[in-house]
Amino acid sequence: MTTKTLNASVAGSAILPALFAVVLGLGIITLAGHVQASALHDAAHDVRHATGFPCH
């Protein structure tokens, strides 16, 4: 394996996680922008209870 081939494969493998993070982030922003505020509050409240974090 030459150095040129090795550098190209390393650069190619770094793009996939970054692309996944961008798609995931945009999906979360889109979902949060379209859901009603009470649903977000209820979901956050349920997560707090599920993890044992006191919220009230």
Automatic annotation (TrEMBL):
Protein name in the entry: CbtB-domain containing protein
Lineage, opening ranks: Bacteria, Pseudomonadati, Pseudomonadota, Alphaproteobacteria, Rhodobacterales
Keywords, alphabetical: Membrane, Transmembrane, Transmembrane helix
Transmembrane residue ranges: 6-32
Organism name: Ruegeria sediminis
InterPro entries noted in UniProt: CbtB_put
